[in-house]
Specification:
Length: about 200
């Protein structure tokens, strides 16, 4: 089912289940936040591509997010905290009179996988995420990490480690949890290899 939603192009990728703090200062995005809170709705964060001219260029896969907290920051800007809900694909996009990008968006459902069989192949990744969960900074975040769900493990682990935006985008665009876990496993193998 297609929905019409505000599109927020940024230089970051927010993965489903993950928490992200944002500073809002442009009037069009302040209005977007007000409208979303009034309608009890969210918006789509999408990675902005680097472009030579002043043309807005975005990737078509993004994440639908919902606002879970807001406050005024010490610098006077509006601060919001969002939680990634699910993946989306942007079909069309246009600007409204405020200059806000409004897109026709389709939800992407993650394919069903055999969680136990899949997770059994990646005990190291579960162990890394279990250790990350115990970190005081991560404990203080309202994350809902389910170590029995391949989707939850893959999205949360990718969201909590220092991956570049382009790598997080690959995780977002992966077909299913199996592809995401395989990608993360190779990432940690590379790190281990570079230390030896």
């Amino acid at each position: 089912m297609l929905k019409s939603l505000p599109i927020f192009p940024l230089g970051i990728v927010v993965l489903p289940g993950n928490i992200q703090s944002l500073q809002i200062f442009e009037p069009r995005y302040i209005q977007m936040v007000k409208d979303c809170m009034k309608a009890d709705s969210g918006f789509v964060i999408v990675l902005q591509k680097e472009s030579k001219e002043n043309q807005l260029s975005i990737l078509e896969h993004g994440t639908y997010v919902e606002i879970i907290d807001f406050n005024t920051l010490p610098n006077g800007l509006l601060g919001i905290t969002v939680r990634g809900i699910h993946r989306t694909k942007i079909k069309t996009m246009e600007q409204n009179q405020l200059g806000l990008n409004i897109g026709t968006v389709e939800n992407i459902q993650d394919p069903e996988v055999d969680d136990q069989a899949l997770l059994a192949q990646y005990p190291d990744l579960i162990q890394i995420l279990s250790q990350l969960k115990q970190h005081p900074q991560i404990k203080s975040m309202p994350l809902e990490i389910n170590l029995d769900s391949a989707d939850s493990v893959s999205y949360h682990l990718a969201g909590l480690i220092p991956l570049a935006a382009k790598d997080k985008q690959k995780i977002l665009e992966a077909f299913d949890a199996g592809q995401r876990l395989n990608y993360l496993s190779k990432y940690f193998d590379q790190i281990a290899g570079s230390k030896n």
